[in-house]
Amino acid sequence: MQCPNCGNNNAPGAKFCQNCGYNFATGKKKGPWLYILLVVGALVVLCGGFFAYKAVTNQTASAPTKQVASSKKETSSSKAKKKESSSEKESSTAVESSSEREKASSTSVEVAGNNAAANSESTSSATSLPDPLFVDGRTSIWENVTNPDDVMIITGVDTMQTAHVVHDSATTPTHYDNSYNIEENTGNSLLLRSTMGGFGGGIEVKGDHIVWQDHETIKEYSLKYIK
Q: How many Cα atoms are found within 13 Å in the side-chain-facing hemisphere of 66?
């Protein structure tokens, strides 16, 4: 496939030009303004989500708990004295039952909170992936589908590093291989360039997997965890 921008011959089905990074799908070259707009947009979305979450949390915390109490009225004055002792016992039992229900409700809320915290830390499922995935301040770790020892580390919106696991090393279990700068970021796809200056290809998110088209080589990685 010949690039209409620079004339370089690329592999059939390539999404980006190997030489200049021309995007065959959109027909546009990478530009710094697009990168700046994407970063600003991502920051606006994050800030809006944070303030919305705080507002909902404060509203929920300030909501009063409503309790409904009922009492029985005696219709006959002659029966009031006879049942006075029985009414006192029933009232005491009702207070104790209400206290037990409040304790049980508090325990349920605490357990639910712990479960929610545990679920928020689990990112192995595609349904728990944040959108957009690649934002400033978030690092994601990925494993090569065919070789789990081949690791990809994407740090925020700035860099991507490749590494491999050294199982018999007690001091440096992860050895870094190559480093790439992220030149274009749409939130769920990246355009890379090697720190040595060469075109590094493009990365696209597919569920809990990402596909890296590095020149004529296509590699697939699965999500290990996000921190």
A: 1
